[in-house]
Protein backbone atom coordinates (compact mmCIF):
# COMPACT_ATOMS: atom_id res chain seq x y z
CA UNK A 1 0.00 0.00 0.00
CA UNK A 2 1.22 3.54 -0.85
CA UNK A 3 2.44 5.48 2.19
CA UNK A 4 0.16 8.37 3.13
CA UNK A 5 1.37 11.96 3.09
CA UNK A 6 0.82 14.36 5.98
CA UNK A 7 -1.37 17.45 6.07
CA UNK A 8 -1.17 19.67 9.16
CA UNK A 9 -2.33 23.11 10.27
CA UNK A 10 0.02 25.56 11.98
CA UNK A 11 -2.09 28.10 13.88
CA UNK A 12 0.34 31.05 13.90
CA UNK A 13 3.68 32.14 12.40
CA UNK A 14 5.06 31.89 15.93
CA UNK A 15 4.36 28.13 15.94
CA UNK A 16 5.98 27.59 12.55
CA UNK A 17 9.39 26.47 13.86
CA UNK A 18 7.75 23.24 15.05
CA UNK A 19 6.65 22.42 11.46
CA UNK A 20 9.54 23.95 9.51
CA UNK A 21 11.53 21.64 7.24
CA UNK A 22 9.16 18.66 7.47
CA UNK A 23 6.71 19.60 4.68
CA UNK A 24 7.52 20.10 1.02
CA UNK A 25 4.55 22.44 0.54
CA UNK A 26 3.57 25.36 2.76
CA UNK A 27 0.15 26.90 2.08
CA UNK A 28 0.12 30.44 3.49
CA UNK A 29 -3.38 31.56 4.49
CA UNK A 30 -4.63 35.04 5.37
CA UNK A 31 -8.33 34.96 4.51
CA UNK A 32 -8.92 38.52 5.85
CA UNK A 33 -7.46 39.83 3.64
CA UNK A 34 -3.91 39.46 2.28
CA UNK A 35 -4.08 36.09 0.54
CA UNK A 36 -7.59 36.84 -0.77
CA UNK A 37 -6.27 40.12 -2.23
CA UNK A 38 -3.29 38.29 -3.78
CA UNK A 39 -5.58 35.73 -5.42
CA UNK A 40 -7.83 38.52 -6.76
CA UNK A 41 -4.82 40.31 -8.18
CA UNK A 42 -3.79 37.25 -10.18
CA UNK A 43 -7.36 36.62 -11.21
CA UNK A 44 -7.29 40.15 -12.62
CA UNK A 45 -4.09 39.47 -14.59
CA UNK A 46 -1.40 41.04 -12.36
CA UNK A 47 1.99 39.71 -13.51
CA UNK A 48 3.72 39.24 -10.15
CA UNK A 49 3.56 40.29 -6.51
CA UNK A 50 6.61 40.89 -4.35
CA UNK A 51 5.60 40.33 -0.71
CA UNK A 52 7.69 42.33 1.75
CA UNK A 53 7.52 42.23 5.53
CA UNK A 54 8.37 45.81 6.45
CA UNK A 55 7.21 49.29 5.47
CA UNK A 56 10.88 50.27 4.97
CA UNK A 57 11.29 47.60 2.27
CA UNK A 58 7.99 48.67 0.69
CA UNK A 59 9.21 52.27 0.62
CA UNK A 60 12.45 51.25 -1.13
CA UNK A 61 10.42 49.62 -3.91
CA UNK A 62 8.15 52.68 -4.13
CA UNK A 63 11.20 54.90 -4.60
CA UNK A 64 12.30 52.63 -7.46
CA UNK A 65 8.95 53.31 -9.20
CA UNK A 66 6.99 50.16 -8.33
CA UNK A 67 3.26 50.18 -7.57
CA UNK A 68 3.13 49.37 -3.87
CA UNK A 69 0.26 48.32 -1.59
CA UNK A 70 0.80 48.71 2.15
CA UNK A 71 -1.55 47.99 5.05
CA UNK A 72 -1.14 48.16 8.80
CA UNK A 73 -3.92 47.53 11.29
CA UNK A 74 -6.41 47.20 8.42
CA UNK A 75 -5.72 50.68 7.02
CA UNK A 76 -3.81 51.94 3.99
CA UNK A 77 -0.39 53.22 5.03
CA UNK A 78 -0.24 56.90 3.96
CA UNK A 79 1.93 57.52 0.93
CA UNK A 80 1.32 54.14 -0.74
CA UNK A 81 -0.76 53.40 -3.84
CA UNK A 82 -3.36 51.18 -2.15
CA UNK A 83 -3.83 48.88 0.82
CA UNK A 84 -5.04 45.34 1.16
CA UNK A 85 -8.58 45.42 -0.19
CA UNK A 86 -9.13 42.75 -2.87
CA UNK A 87 -11.11 45.37 -4.79
CA UNK A 88 -7.99 47.54 -5.18
CA UNK A 89 -6.41 44.74 -7.20
CA UNK A 90 -9.25 44.37 -9.68
CA UNK A 91 -8.60 47.56 -11.66
CA UNK A 92 -7.54 47.45 -15.34
CA UNK A 93 -4.42 49.55 -14.55
CA UNK A 94 -2.90 46.63 -12.65
CA UNK A 95 -3.16 44.08 -15.46
CA UNK A 96 0.29 42.83 -16.48
CA UNK A 97 2.00 44.83 -13.71
CA UNK A 98 4.50 43.83 -11.03
CA UNK A 99 3.16 44.92 -7.65
CA UNK A 100 4.76 45.08 -4.21
CA UNK A 101 2.69 44.33 -1.10
CA UNK A 102 3.29 44.67 2.62
CA UNK A 103 0.60 43.72 5.16
CA UNK A 104 0.44 43.29 8.93
CA UNK A 105 0.50 39.49 8.97
CA UNK A 106 0.07 37.90 5.54
CA UNK A 107 3.23 39.03 3.75
CA UNK A 108 5.24 38.37 6.92
CA UNK A 109 3.93 34.77 7.00
CA UNK A 110 4.85 34.31 3.32
CA UNK A 111 8.40 35.43 4.05
CA UNK A 112 8.62 33.16 7.11
CA UNK A 113 7.67 30.20 4.87
CA UNK A 114 10.45 30.95 2.36
CA UNK A 115 12.85 28.01 2.21
CA UNK A 116 10.14 25.38 1.80
CA UNK A 117 10.23 23.50 -1.51
CA UNK A 118 6.99 25.25 -2.53
CA UNK A 119 5.13 28.15 -0.94
CA UNK A 120 1.60 28.54 -2.29
CA UNK A 121 -1.04 31.15 -1.51
CA UNK A 122 -4.35 29.88 -0.16
CA UNK A 123 -7.65 31.45 0.73
CA UNK A 124 -11.33 30.63 0.58
CA UNK A 125 -11.61 32.39 -2.79
CA UNK A 126 -9.36 29.77 -4.50
CA UNK A 127 -10.10 26.90 -2.11
CA UNK A 128 -11.29 24.12 -4.44
CA UNK A 129 -8.69 24.88 -7.13
CA UNK A 130 -5.99 24.77 -4.44
CA UNK A 131 -7.26 21.46 -3.03
CA UNK A 132 -7.23 19.90 -6.52
CA UNK A 133 -3.71 21.23 -7.11
CA UNK A 134 -2.45 19.91 -3.75
CA UNK A 135 -3.92 16.45 -4.41
CA UNK A 136 -2.13 16.34 -7.77
CA UNK A 137 1.23 17.21 -6.09
CA UNK A 138 0.92 14.39 -3.51
CA UNK A 139 3.47 15.97 -1.15
CA UNK A 140 3.45 16.68 2.60
CA UNK A 141 1.51 19.89 3.26
CA UNK A 142 1.40 22.34 6.14
CA UNK A 143 -1.16 25.15 6.16
CA UNK A 144 0.46 28.19 7.77
CA UNK A 145 -2.21 30.49 9.22
CA UNK A 146 -1.07 34.12 9.28
CA UNK A 147 -3.16 34.87 12.39
CA UNK A 148 -3.02 38.31 13.94
CA UNK A 149 0.33 39.48 15.32
CA UNK A 150 1.34 35.91 16.17
CA UNK A 151 -2.02 35.23 17.78
CA UNK A 152 -4.56 32.58 16.67
CA UNK A 153 -7.46 33.59 14.43
CA UNK A 154 -10.59 31.76 13.40
CA UNK A 155 -10.84 32.53 9.67
CA UNK A 156 -7.37 31.26 8.69
CA UNK A 157 -7.82 28.17 10.87
CA UNK A 158 -11.17 27.40 9.21
CA UNK A 159 -9.56 27.64 5.76
CA UNK A 160 -6.71 25.36 6.91
CA UNK A 161 -9.32 22.98 8.30
CA UNK A 162 -11.14 22.91 4.95
CA UNK A 163 -7.90 21.95 3.19
CA UNK A 164 -7.17 19.30 5.83
CA UNK A 165 -10.66 17.82 5.59
CA UNK A 166 -10.51 17.56 1.78
CA UNK A 167 -7.02 16.04 1.71
CA UNK A 168 -7.90 13.53 4.44
CA UNK A 169 -11.13 12.60 2.63
CA UNK A 170 -9.07 11.72 -0.47
CA UNK A 171 -7.45 8.82 1.41
CA UNK A 172 -3.99 10.04 0.25
CA UNK A 173 -3.35 11.96 3.49
CA UNK A 174 -3.21 11.59 7.24
CA UNK A 175 -2.78 14.11 10.10
CA UNK A 176 -0.96 13.77 13.39
CA UNK A 177 -1.33 17.07 15.22
CA UNK A 178 -4.19 18.26 17.42
CA UNK A 179 -4.06 21.66 15.70
CA UNK A 180 -5.14 19.93 12.48
CA UNK A 181 -7.96 18.04 14.22
CA UNK A 182 -9.18 21.28 15.84
CA UNK A 183 -8.98 23.15 12.51
CA UNK A 184 -10.99 20.43 10.81
CA UNK A 185 -13.75 20.59 13.43
CA UNK A 186 -13.87 24.39 13.24
CA UNK A 187 -14.28 24.10 9.48
CA UNK A 188 -17.04 21.48 9.83
CA UNK A 189 -18.89 23.72 12.31
CA UNK A 190 -18.65 26.80 10.09
CA UNK A 191 -18.84 25.49 6.51
CA UNK A 192 -22.54 26.27 6.01
CA UNK A 193 -22.30 29.88 7.12
CA UNK A 194 -18.84 31.46 7.35
CA UNK A 195 -20.28 34.96 7.77
CA UNK A 196 -22.46 33.92 10.70
CA UNK A 197 -19.81 31.77 12.34
CA UNK A 198 -17.24 34.55 12.14
CA UNK A 199 -19.59 37.29 13.29
CA UNK A 200 -17.80 37.77 16.58
CA UNK A 201 -14.27 36.99 15.35
CA UNK A 202 -11.79 39.71 16.26
CA UNK A 203 -10.66 40.52 12.74
CA UNK A 204 -14.17 40.60 11.32
CA UNK A 205 -15.06 43.12 14.05
CA UNK A 206 -11.88 45.10 13.33
CA UNK A 207 -12.65 45.34 9.59
CA UNK A 208 -16.32 46.12 10.26
CA UNK A 209 -15.26 49.08 12.40
CA UNK A 210 -13.29 50.28 9.36
CA UNK A 211 -16.43 49.96 7.15
CA UNK A 212 -14.91 47.08 5.20
CA UNK A 213 -17.99 44.87 5.15
CA UNK A 214 -17.88 44.36 1.37
CA UNK A 215 -14.30 43.10 1.68
CA UNK A 216 -15.36 40.66 4.39
CA UNK A 217 -18.22 39.29 2.26
CA UNK A 218 -15.91 38.90 -0.72
CA UNK A 219 -13.16 37.14 1.24
CA UNK A 220 -15.61 34.73 2.86
CA UNK A 221 -17.17 33.66 -0.46
CA UNK A 222 -15.43 30.42 -1.45
CA UNK A 223 -14.34 29.14 -4.86
CA UNK A 224 -14.51 32.29 -6.95
CA UNK A 225 -11.37 31.59 -9.00
CA UNK A 226 -8.85 28.98 -10.09
CA UNK A 227 -5.58 30.81 -9.48
CA UNK A 228 -2.63 29.02 -7.82
CA UNK A 229 -0.16 31.75 -6.79
CA UNK A 230 3.29 30.30 -6.01
CA UNK A 231 6.37 32.00 -4.57
CA UNK A 232 9.41 31.87 -6.90
CA UNK A 233 12.41 33.49 -5.22
CA UNK A 234 11.05 36.77 -3.89
CA UNK A 235 8.09 36.98 -6.29
CA UNK A 236 4.68 35.38 -6.32
CA UNK A 237 3.54 34.25 -9.78
CA UNK A 238 0.33 32.53 -10.83
CA UNK A 239 1.38 28.95 -11.74
O1 LIG B 1 -2.69 41.01 8.37
C1 LIG B 1 -2.77 41.09 7.15
O2 LIG B 1 -1.90 40.69 6.41
C2 LIG B 1 -3.97 41.77 6.58
O3 LIG B 1 -4.63 40.92 5.75
C3 LIG B 1 -4.82 42.40 7.63
S1 LIG B 1 -6.12 43.37 7.00
O4 LIG B 1 -7.21 42.53 6.59
O5 LIG B 1 -5.66 44.17 5.90
O6 LIG B 1 -6.54 44.20 8.12
List keywords for this structure.
239 residues; alpha/beta; putative 2-phosphosulfolactate phosphatase; five-stranded parallel beta sheet; four-stranded mixed beta sheet; 11 strands; 38% helix; globular; binds (2R)-3-sulfolactic acid
Describe this structure in words.
The chain is α/β, with parallel strands linked by helices. The chain has a single domain, classed as ComB-like (putative 2-phosphosulfolactate phosphatase, Alpha-Beta Complex), CATH 3.90.1560.10. The chain has ten helices and eleven strands. The chain has helices at 16-19, 34-43, 55-63, 106-113, 127-137, 154-169, 178-190, 194-197, 202-209, 213-219; strands at residues 5-10, 25-29, 48-51, 67-72, 75-76, 98-102, 118-122, 141-145, 173-174, 229-232, 235-238. The protein has a five-stranded parallel beta sheet with strand order 7-2-8-1-9, sandwiched between helices. It has a four-stranded mixed beta sheet with strand order 3-6-4-5. The chain has a two-stranded antiparallel ribbon with strand order 10-11. Strand 10 (229-232) and strand 11 form a beta hairpin. Helix 5 crosses helix 6 (154-169) and helix 6 (154-169) crosses helix 7. 49% of the residues are buried. The model has no long low-confidence stretch (mean pLDDT 96). (2R)-3-sulfolactic acid is lined by residues 30, 32-34, 71, 74, 84, 103-106, 146, 207.
